[in-house]
Amino acid sequence: MALKLDPGQRLVLATHNAGKVRELAQILENRFEVVSAGELGLPEPEETETTFAGNALLKARAAAEAGGLVALADDSGLSAAALDGAPGIFSARWAGPGKDFALAMRHVEERIAEAGRRLEDACWFTCALAVAWPDGPAVVVEGRVDGRLTFPPRGDRGFGYDPIFTPDGGALTFGEMEPAAKDAMSHRARAFAKLKAALF
Amino acid sequence: MALKLDPGQRLVLATHNAGKVRELAQILENRFEVVSAGELGLPEPEETETTFAGNALLKARAAAEAGGLVALADDSGLSAAALDGAPGIFSARWAGPGKDFALAMRHVEERIAEAGRRLEDACWFTCALAVAWPDGPAVVVEGRVDGRLTFPPRGDRGFGYDPIFTPDGGALTFGEMEPAAKDAMSHRARAFAKLKAALF
Lengths: 200, 200
Prior knowledge:
Chain A has 200 residues and is of the alpha/beta class.
């Protein structure tokens, strides 16, 4: 088999989050016929790995095996240098079951203060993407964008930790930037660029 | 970039084990110019993931980034159904720092007996292989062979847990089989066949 994704190919998105399905489908430019793991009623695996790449791989492989289709998974988050990379793979979990990212951002601010570090300390967003074939190989890529923490949070665009992230060389947070400007440099865009170069 | 490995390409084997380097180099049929992570003085990452695939990926990516070369890593082990997949990713660690697999096999036997299960219970070998490009994608494959535990251990060929593994449909343990016969069906051979189909 060749490691290629063909236009129009059926692809299961290994997520149960409807917002993420819409976002991934949009990034994929309607190139594929996408269906979500949630729509197929596939089980949601526990994210037991310690890295973004490991968790993306685990989710893609689980969906490919359970669904019998090529599967795409992502795993992403914010890492603060002062917190040894936290929240990292726990980024979503810091927002709690209610997905309260205002709470998660306050938590980052408190932990940075406790560590005695500047609130504008270095941080980065990471996005890992994995594509897995049923009983076959998997391809994993990772994109990263470096920046600095920004408190108080600014902007109501984007989602998650976007309001406390200002990319290096910029003045606006991801929460303030035009979607097109953010999409030109984001960790997710960089990961998708690598995926496209490898598989499209 | 195309996800292909070219003949003669330089490849770093992400292992510090000289025996494994020899074995991998042999399987690769001298197709590539191989050098080991040990020879290059690369750091040995901690194997923190919970799956064979995750640990192979982690090791390949660490070697690719540290060495600036395409890297190949493997992670493999024996899983017993009665022990919920143990020793699994801990297969090498059960042998202790002295790599005493006679001890590790006794440990499996004791745990099976404690679980009140038959000593001939189902088990399987898994081999995950990962190839990572520096700052680029990674490809992960997995091969598996099913069999049954065999006590007392038999045969002095192979290595590791081979003397207590009899493949389904066979009468000899991996420790008793001719190398060519074992290589025709082993988890490692199956993983390499998938890797070759994808990348060679």
